[in-house]
Write a structure and sequence with these properties.
Blueprint: H1 5-13, H2 17-29, E1 32-33, H3 34-41, H4 45-58, E2 61-64, E3 67-70, H5 72-83, H6 98-107, H7 122-132, E4 140-141, H8 143-151, H9 157-167, E5 170-172, E6 179-181
Antiparallel strand pairs: 1-3, 2-3, 4-6, 5-6
Helix pairs in contact: 1-4, 3-4, 6-7, 8-9
């Protein structure tokens, strides 16, 4: 599911604590002018104007005659268009063995993330092989990069990273500074 440009604009607009505070203020206290927002939040008026420009451009806030308000209908419409009728469904590849497909179906959420890490054995190997596809050969990764890749699948990056090393799927420098996929 590829994000739409409107959604990316919305997410960027939400990526600032000050912009979130502005939205919170407008949501709780209703329509306000830029100067009133600056006073209420203790933010310099030029900063408020910059934030309001981005919020207006993303459709989160609307402006009419210098008065700003949260555009709840636009936000609702954006959410509906992005998620309407689209439910992520993970399905194992047809070429996978039936026992592999069964393990993946059991341990993966519909979006392909891991529900629970199997303790050991064949089930753990199946899950590790699944996640391992995200790592390229002939690429050296930092520990932070390895964690970022693993986090797409599960929050327990340390356990999965350790399992990759223990099973010989990834190798690393003794100080943990570099990781790479083993052929």
């Amino acid at each position: 599911m590829e994000p739409q440009p409107e959604v990316l604009s919305f997410v960027k607009a939400m990526a600032s604590a000050d912009r979130l505070r502005i939205i919170g203020l407008l949501s709780l206290r209703g329509s306000k002018r830029a100067v009133e927002i600056a006073e209420a939040l203790g933010i310099h008026p030029s900063e408020v104007n910059r934030h309001l420009e981005q919020l207006t451009a993303s459709g989160v806030v609307r402006e009419a005659e210098g008065v700003y308000d949260v555009d709840e209908k636009a936000i609702e419409s954006l959410a509906r268009s992005q998620f309407e009728g689209k439910r992520p469904v993970y399905e194992a590849k047809e070429e996978e063995q039936p026992d592999v497909r069964k393990v993946l179906k059991t341990y993966l959420n519909a979006d392909g993330t891991i529900k629970q890490i199997p303790q050991e054995g064949k089930k753990l190997i199946v899950i590790l092989n699944y996640v391992l596809e995200a790592f390229a050969f002939d690429v050296t990764y930092t520990e932070k990069e390895v964690n970022t890749i693993i986090r797409r699948f599960h929050v327990d990056t340390a356990s999965l990273r350790r399992a990759f090393i223990d099973q010989g799927f990834l190798a690393r420098e003794s100080d943990g500074s570099k990781y790479w996929r083993v052929k």
